[in-house]
Amino acid sequence: MGMFHYYDIGHAEVFIFDDFLIKQVREGELVDKEETLEFKVILNEHFKGKNMAYISNRVFSYSVNPLVYKEAEKIPNLVAIAVIPSNDKTRASAQYESQFYDRPFGIFKNLSDAIQWVHKIIERENSELNIKTM
Questions:
Q1: Tell me, what's the pLDDT at 28?
Q2: pTM score
Q3: The Cα angle at residue 46 between residues 83 and 86, in degrees rounded to 5
Q4: Which residues, in sequence order, are CB contacts of 74 under 8 Å at separation 6+?
Q5: What stretch of H or E contains 45?
Q6: Which domains does the chain have, with CATH numbers?
Q7: Phi, psi dihedral angles at 52 (to 5 degrees)
């Protein structure tokens, strides 16, 4: 995996790796459109011009406005979202949220499984992109 970058953006911690990021939102926060706009700045800095995936490590309890997924779909190089819920309630919320996102959306028991899945999605997307540019 190599080096990673770390951001503390107030409401969350963000860990940036080569082709994915992990975001851990703090307890009691609300993820809404404003956070998505702030998030795009980080994405442009680290992932401009290459496919990437978002992993939500839901260690804490917080709220998500499902309309943020419509904003996320506007990010052309965001090819997948993975969620790691910490309990059944968080899993049910993630399943509901998945209805608002029209790209690959996976729910996993642990970080290792989520990372493996996003790597497969990114590899597939990169292969399809290479075929289209030939």
A1: 85
A2: 0.90
A3: 15
A4: none
A5: helix 33-47
A6: 5-133 (3.30.750)
A7: -150, 170
Contacts of 107 (CB under 8 A, 6+ apart): 82, 83, 84, 85, 91, 94, 95, 98
Q: What is the pLDDT of residues 42-98, one digit of tens each?
A: 888 999 989 999 999 999 989 888 888 888 888 899 999 999 999 999 999 999 999
End-to-end CA distance of the chain, in Å? 29
Identify the H or E element spanning 61.
none
**Residues 6 or more apart from 117 whose CB is under 8 A from it?**
80, 82, 106, 108
Percent of the chain with pLDDT over 90: 60
